[in-house]
UniProtKB/TrEMBL annotation:
<dbReference type="Pfam" id="PF14520">
    <property type="entry name" value="HHH_5"/>
</dbReference>
<dbReference type="Pfam" id="PF17782">
    <property type="entry name" value="WHD_DprA"/>
</dbReference>
<dbReference type="InterPro" id="IPR041614">
    <property type="entry name" value="DprA_WH"/>
</dbReference>
<protein>
    <submittedName>
        <fullName>DNA-protecting protein DprA</fullName>
    </submittedName>
</protein>
<dbReference type="InterPro" id="IPR057666">
    <property type="entry name" value="DrpA_SLOG"/>
</dbReference>
<feature type="domain" description="Smf/DprA SLOG">
    <location>
        <begin position="81"/>
        <end position="287"/>
    </location>
</feature>
<feature type="domain" description="DprA winged helix">
    <location>
        <begin position="309"/>
        <end position="362"/>
    </location>
</feature>
<dbReference type="InterPro" id="IPR036388">
    <property type="entry name" value="WH-like_DNA-bd_sf"/>
</dbReference>
<dbReference type="InterPro" id="IPR010994">
    <property type="entry name" value="RuvA_2-like"/>
</dbReference>
<dbReference type="InterPro" id="IPR003488">
    <property type="entry name" value="DprA"/>
</dbReference>
<dbReference type="Pfam" id="PF02481">
    <property type="entry name" value="DNA_processg_A"/>
</dbReference>
<dbReference type="GO" id="GO:0009294">
    <property type="term" value="P:DNA-mediated transformation"/>
</dbReference>
<comment type="similarity">
    <text>Belongs to the DprA/Smf family.</text>
</comment>
Length: 367
């Protein structure tokens, strides 16, 4: 296992080879190990790979660095998830620029039934903190199986994590460095508590320097892991707005709490709403309406077969979703022993019949 893992770590560390190009390499060659054993001539035939990247792939220093990382994650009990692994978060996997390898620490269920990212300014006001806490309290009262994701930064981020823990909801902090350190260091105590009910996640290896561009890079994970991103407070410019833009580009839902005209840390939210970059919400009722959530999934039992004629395959899908409430397309494919391409066509037809509702991340549930 370690032999295979070291190749995965090495692939993620090749300079200039991001998630898209790394996946192309594996797809063309057929295995991670093959990337490092393929001939130069064959590598040069792969789109996007030139002389410079071929030299980077063959650089022995990459494996020396990967060996150090392998020792580190074993010593610190850190879990690594490659994009082909079963436990790699499915919502993130569907993002075109998702990292090929992520590192996690803690007690985390990354594919919780509902995942919400909450972001905002580092200069949170009392209004922003109150809005954030009330929303998370409402999540708890509704007893949703939900995961709260944020960036463990000052302000709204850390307040979201603290509120989640206060109301016994799992929460994950996506950090912009390796799991050998924590920035800001003031949040070590809250991060430690998060390991018990949630944890930390990063696509950066240990020894990564604290670098401002990394914080923008990690925002794609915050956006990609979630069904929806909620901006609580933001100035006209800031990382929260970047995260919202990324979520929008992933076709995920984006929401924002409005603020008073002229308030510095509501200008970003008001602008998002004005420019149709986010839907306005004032609380959980609005969120439930936009997301199509129900207070209790079991309260409303739908029997589509009474209203429309179903094929045998459609009946199988309905039975599955009655048992499981919500399922990802690959889970449906596995349970029915049916190719994903065929399942995709089947689900689309059932959507047209108004039997199913498609959720973010290629998840489906009965209407």
């Amino acid at each position: 296992m370690d032999d295979n893992l070291i190749y995965k770590i090495a692939l993620s560390m090749i300079p200039g080879v991001g998630g898209i190009l790394a996946r192309n390499l594996v797809s063309y060659i057929g295995s991670v190990e093959g990337v490092f054993k393929e001939s130069k001539k064959a590598l040069l035939k792969i789109p996007g790979i030139g002389e410079v990247n071929v030299k980077r792939i063959s650089n022995k220093e990459i494996f020396e660095r990967a060996e150090r990382e392998l020792k580190f994650i074993h010593k610190e009990n850190i879990n690594s998830l490659f994009y082909t692994d079963k436990n790699y978060p499915r919502r993130l996997k569907n993002c075109v620029d998702a990292p090929v390898l992520i590192y996690t620490k803690g007690n985390i269920k990354l594919d919780e039934q509902r995942v919400i990212s909450i972001v905002g300014t580092r200069n949170a006001t009392d209004y922003g903190k109150q809005v954030c806490e009330e929303l998370i309290q409402q999540f708890s009262e509704r007893k949703y199986p939900i995961l709260i994701v944020s960036g463990l930064a000052y302000g709204i981020d850390v307040h979201a994590h603290k509120s989640a823990l206060n109301y016994n909801l799992p929460t994950v902090g996506v950090v912009a460095h390796g799991l050998d350190k924590l920035y800001p260091s003031l949040h070590k105590e809250i991060a430690s508590k998060m390991l018990e009910n949630g944890g930390l996640l990063s696509d950066f290896p240990s020894e990564t320097k604290i670098d401002p561009p990394n914080f923008l890079r990690r925002n794609r994970i915050i956006a990609g892991m979630a069904d929806a991103t909620i901006v609580v407070e933001s100035a006209e410019k800031g990382g929260a707005l970047v995260t919202a833009d990324i979520a929008f580009s992933y076709n995920r839902d984006v929401f924002a709490f409005p603020g008073r005209a002229g308030d510095t840390y509501s200008k970003g939210c008001n602008k998002l709403i004005r420019n149709n970059g986010a839907s306005l919400i004032t609380g959980i009722d609005d969120l439930e309406f936009f997301m199509g959530w129900e207070i209790d999934d079991k309260e409303k039992v739908v029997q589509p077969s009474l209203f429309v004629e179903l094929t045998k395959d459609e009946e199988k899908v309905v039975d599955l979703l009655k048992e499981n409430s919500e399922l990802f397309i690959d889970q449906i494919s596995s349970k029915l022993s049916m190719p994903v391409s065929r399942v995709s066509a089947l689900l689309l037809n059932m959507e047209f019949k108004n039997i199913l509702k498609a959720l973010p991340g290629k998840m489906y549930r009965l209407k």
